[in-house]
Amino acid sequence: MVVIRLARGGAKKRPFYNIVAADSRNRRDGRFIERVGFYNPMAAESEKGLVINTERLEYWKQNGAQLSPTVLRLAKQAAKAA
Using alpha carbons only, what angle is made at residue 65 by residues 54 and 38, rounded to the nearest 5 degrees? Predict the structure, then answer.
């Protein structure tokens, strides 16, 4: 099953997350199919904290991908801001 979830990156105490479409059997930070966006919870005022390619997100949802609860919350937040 394909799942859209967060893959953690960044340094210690400075998280950065890629929003990725991945096979559910792969590790959290492991191999993924496509990068759909990113989330930076530590973003400064001048930086973008959340970017999601909504076209690709909809494509994956239409093809049966499941969104993790956090990605679902972030997608709603991005839609509200747009």
Answer: 40
Q: Using CA of residue 31, residue 53, residue 39, residue 78, what is the dihedral sign? A: negative
**Beta partners for residue 3, in sequence order:** 22, 66
> Does an H or E element contain 46, and which?
none
Closest CA to 17 of 57, 71, 60: 71
Query: Nearest 5°: phi and psi at 74?
Result: -65, -35
Task: Please report how the helices 69-81 and 54-62 are oriented relative to each other, as an axis angle in degrees rounded to 10.
Answer: 140
Residue range 61-82, pLDDT digits in tens? 999 999 999 999 999 999 998 7
